[in-house]
Amino acid sequence: MNPLLSVRELTVGFETPKGPVRVVDGVSLELAEGETLGLVGESGSGKSTLALSLGRLLDEPPAFIDPGSRIEYAGVNLLALDPERLRTYRGKAIAWIFQDPASSLDPVIKVGHQIAEAVCAHSDVGRKAAWNRAVELLALVGLNDPRDAAHCYPHQLSGGMRQRVAIAAALAGEPKLLVADEPTTALDVTLQAQILALLGDLRERLGMALLLITHDLGVVADIADRVAVMYAGRLVEEGGKEQVLKQPAHPYTEALLRATPRLHRTGPRLPAIPGAAPDPTSWPSGCRFHPRCRYAWDRCSSEEPSQLSGETGRWVRCWLATEPQRRRG
Amino acid sequence: MNRLRALLIAGSGALIWIRWQRIWDLLQAGDFSDRMAALAALAAPLVFALGRLPDRWKRARLDASAWVVLAILAAALLAPVLAPYDPTAQLDLANRRLLPPSPAHPLGTDLFSRDLLSRLLYGARLSLWIACFSVAIAVVVGTGVGLAAGYLGGTADALIMRLVDTALAIPRIFLLLVVLTLWEQGGIMTMVLVLGLTSWFGTSRLVRAEVLSLKQRDFVTAARALGIAPIAILLKHILPNALAPVIVTATLGVGQIVLTEAALSYLGVGVPPPHPSWGSMIADAQPFLPTHPWMAIVPGLALAGTVVAFSFFGESLQAKLDPRRR
């Protein structure tokens, strides 16, 4: 079966006074219909740039997408479409949810109108019908009193309600793929669980694929089918959720997991990953993780490993895969 | 609030009682604006008695400057009802010239025996009418140009903004003098057009800056991600969010244009005689400054008061509309 979304060698960067900076560098990934892929990485690894570039939502210039890149949605290369055609895919084929619901809603428009506007953008319905649909969507995302909520301005709603509204607006075009860029980061912990449960539930009911971008491995463990790990603009590891979380192949994933706090486990301080995320203006030579890697040897700083495949859909970009005995040492 | 309401009802009722004959005459034989003024005077007590302010107005809490601005606007609107005489009528050239203030003429009369209070009230009407229309033109043109520049960006933006810079470099008063002198027969409408078309530059810069900053906001990205058309994003999301500073500059602009119009009328190229204008009233009073100082002082104070009131009102609007200062 053809994948719903297929990204090939996607390179996205920004023009700066000091020259182009590649923030996403040769990323390839696939997503089948109804599947949930968790994309994990720390701040500055290029996750959000990747998310926005899927719909060419970055301002170009200063952003640019390398002409060799391909983003195929159901077989159509989105990068080859003219702006007007591309717009018909935004919201209808792929929809986005952003990190901060407080700033991703227009402060001066009633939330019902914002959702109705999204409904109207993709179907030929009257104002009244669009408004009714907006109320339905608000009910679908679990707002009590959707009728009253539709008449509220964003500042009259709580953070969790705002994120639900943002999700309702994203669902207005009945997208096949929902890209959620850190949808729970700006919310407090109890709300995070609720919003994640909602996303999982909606995915089941509406049969959407979900690209969930997060820095939180706990979030991924909750609802992802597969996990891809991103570091310094590159994917470094990909596989099924169980495989990646139980047997991380890349030292970066391993370090991330070790640095994740767990309930019911007390012990010494959590081991942090030494050093800081590298600067995109000068990525390290060889493997980009080698300056922070506990296993690194001379080969790592001179040659970058390619995607070394194990079983199907499971690969890692690390020399350890060829010399597993070094992991113990 | 209730005491104020009672006061407003009583005041407007008293006005109808005192000026009943005048209102009746205006309704019978006035032109369109006279009839509107008469109707407004008649409707006022009813509106104050029955009308309930919307909740959001009640919460707005009008401050002193807002009340002064409202009073000036009311005086201008109701000038035909309030004014004791026709502002252009030469009442009695032989016996009633240059009279000092008296019960019959509260502010005295001028060289041509015209009642100064009537001229002052009608002058407010004309000045504010000119200012409001000019500002409306300036706001529409300035907002349109600013939106276009901010939205198009790149070369078009650079071109438009350099043209605006050039226009801003020309001293406005000279431009106005030249145009109005060349176009002498134009009348008041020309003046409105010229004033409006020379005062939108600042607004366009302001709107452009707002558009550029709003374009970077998350909710605009979110709207694009929902597949909403760029022009709809510009008009429905960016424009309403950019309006607050525009409203403030428009308010300040009214005061500015009242002043500019007075200056032009003082110099003799503004409102054509015999229409009353505060600027021309001051000019007319100039020779009599040593003997009849009130003739210049009263319109001068009215002018200064109006400009100050609009400035303070603009400031307080800015404080109210700017969420960062709430």
Verbal overview:
- The complex is a heterodimer of chains A (329) and B (326).
- Chain A is α/β, with parallel strands linked by helices and 329 residues long.
- Chain A has one domain: Rossmann fold (3-Layer(aba) Sandwich).
- Helices cover 31% and strands 22% of the residues of chain A.
- In chain A, the strands form two sheets. An eight-stranded mixed sheet of chain A has the order 7-8-9-3-10-11-13-12, sandwiched between helices. In chain A, strands 1, 2, 4, 5 and 6 form a five-stranded antiparallel sheet that branches.
- Chain B is an all-alpha fold and 326 residues long.
- The mean pLDDT of chain B is 85.
- The chains are: A alpha/beta (329), B mainly alpha (326).
- At the A-B interface, helix 2, helix 3 and helix 6 of A face helix 12 and helix 13 of B.
List its traits:
heterodimer; A: 329 residues; alpha/beta; Rossmann fold; five-stranded antiparallel sheet; 11 helices; B: 326 residues; mainly alpha; MetI-like fold
CATH topology label of chain A: Rossmann fold
CATH architecture of the largest domain in chain B: Orthogonal Bundle
Model regions low in confidence, pLDDT < 50 over at least 5 residues of chain B? none
Total of DSSP H or I helical runs spanning 4+ residues of chain A: 11
Helicity of chain B, as a percent range: over 70%
**Cα separation of the termini of chain A:** 43 Å
Order of helices and strands of chain B: HHHHHHHHHHHHHHH
CA gyration radius of chain B, whole angstroms: 23 Å
Please provide the ordered H/E string of secondary-structure elements of chain A: EEEHEEEHEHHHHEHEHEEHHHEE
CATH class of the largest domain in chain B: Mainly Alpha
